[in-house]
Amino acid sequence: MQEGVATDSVALEAIEKLGPREKWRIVKNIAVLGIAFMIHFTAFHGTSNLQSSLHNDGSLGAYTLACIYGSLILSNLFLPVLVIRHLGCKWTIVVSFIAYMPYIAAQFYPSFATLIPSGLAVGFGGGPLWCAKCTYLSIIAEAFSVATRRKVRTEYLIVKFFSLFFVFYQLAQVLGNLISFTVLSYGESEPVNGTIESSVNVSVTCGANYAAPIHQEAHAAIDLKRPEPEQLNRLTGIFLACMGVASVSVALGVDSLKRYNMVRKSPNNGVSGMNTLIITLRQLSHKYQLLLLPIAAFIGIEQAFITADFTKSFVACGLGISYIGYAMISFGLANTVAAALTPYITKHLGRRLLILLTFVFHAALIVFMLLWTPTNEYYKYSIIVACWGLADGVWLIQINSLSGILFPGNEEAAFSNFRLWEACGSVIMYSASSFFPTFHKLLFVLGMMIVGTIGYGSIELMEHRAKRIDPGKRFEVVSQEANEN
């Protein structure tokens, strides 16, 4: 038996002592956690989607986003295990939420002196935040499985719980961008026949043709239609209040994992910062973890592209900054649909076929964006970003779930590695925003997707060969090896 996991009889007896409605309490915890993340990231996404366009002078917005994900790299290396062991998953989430708030407040007085330090704080809070969330969901999935007397496999519950969580989480894109569009477009004239008046030659300047600011000779001539300061301050105040509500919701509405210690005992608490780094890096000794790194980096790259480059080179260039929120609403809706449907589609098609179809779909979309001639018809941008959101939702659910399925008992290190390499991808993309044209960045996204899918396919191939030798072998190789030792 794997160390730290109780026997079924002991765990079941302990769960039953909590009461017959414990299953519903677990679902309540997931719902409250998901709603809190939704409210919190309504503010974060609504703000971050505007950064590269709103703070375009000196590429302040792009550099701020790069700082967020750069500090997230360090955070994932040193902080998650250490912070979670001392605070527990619940209070790690609360404290991490608070670490995001200075970034929103800095929007009142945007400058390198305010945005860069507050961006670093977001990154340092982000590592523990996401690892705590992933660990929390994985452990209560196991508790739920015990409560149902193993009628539902734990690995399926992990996928389902991640899906339920991400349904709430992805709605943050919808709400954040809806608030952004409503506040920033108030008082503007309505579009005529689905088109936006623009002083920019959209078909020549925007989309894949958009040049990096450092190479734009006529950069000053590109009018991104900046909103009024009063509108921006009103939006910032709304988002700051959202983060405060999210922190209180988790503090008052989510149970501590101490309630389920009978299912998964906590490891030794005597972990130093250096030991945390060693634990995270030691996880790389698993060949499956190494093979998952490229696709984790790809997820960071494609999300950074849609947040910084698509919003600026496609939407802000062609329609204006206020329409970023309008276009990105479609991204959030598509993400939500993908999060809700992915477990059911996976059940019928299988993980391998679904990921293959997602790869083909996403690759075709990138090729279309490379060849598309942009227009000032705003609904077309929404269609493109919705398709991207569908693909992103599948990638996010499947690869997050794999980290929990492959490495039970080592979730903190596995999710830390996922966020670490996802952040590396984001930093690369944000840093390149000022130096490379959009055409080249789209090619880079496509290339990383190919490499990442090959890495994932290698895991499936090794599993297929292993099952030919041992037909009873399950996918979770690392878990079985741990049980045998």
From TrEMBL:
Main location: membrane
UniProt superkingdom: Eukaryota
One GO cellular component, as annotated: plasma membrane
Any one GO biological process: regulation of potassium ion transport
Coiled-coil segments on the chain, per record: none
Residues spanning the membrane: 26-43, 63-84, 91-109, 115-136, 157-179, 235-254, 290-308, 320-341, 353-372, 442-459
Gene3D superfamilies named among the record's database cross-references: MFS general substrate transporter like domains
Cellular compartment(s): Membrane
Membrane-related topology note: Multi-pass membrane protein
Entry keyword set: Membrane, Transmembrane, Transmembrane helix
Gene Ontology molecular function: potassium channel regulator activity
Family, per entry: Belongs to the unc-93 family.
Protein name: UNC93-like protein
Native source organism of the sequence: Anopheles dirus
Species lineage: Eukaryota, Metazoa, Ecdysozoa, Arthropoda, Hexapoda
